[in-house]
Amino acid sequence: MDKWLWHARVVKARTSAAELVVTGHVRVNGVRETSPGHAIKPGDVLTIALDRTVRVLKVTGFNERRGDAASARVLYEELGTRN
Q1: How far, in Å, CA of 2 to CA of 22, rounded?
Q2: pLDDT one-digit tens code per residue, 44-56
Q3: CATH no. of 2-82
């Protein structure tokens, strides 16, 4: 999961993604997940509590490598944000 968060450019560094998960700021389909290695699949809905925002993303795909912002946008569908 941490790798996907990094590939999707939700965070700037993979270590930040792992820390976000370990500290309980990510839910998968409404269930809090604290394992950075947790497997996610297309169709999963991630609720991510960032510093000032909560993002709700639906996983639509995966990449082998981290690309630019345009390639990251195809990995998810933004279902909503809250401040």
Answers
A1: 10
A2: 999 999 988 999 9
A3: 3.10.290.10
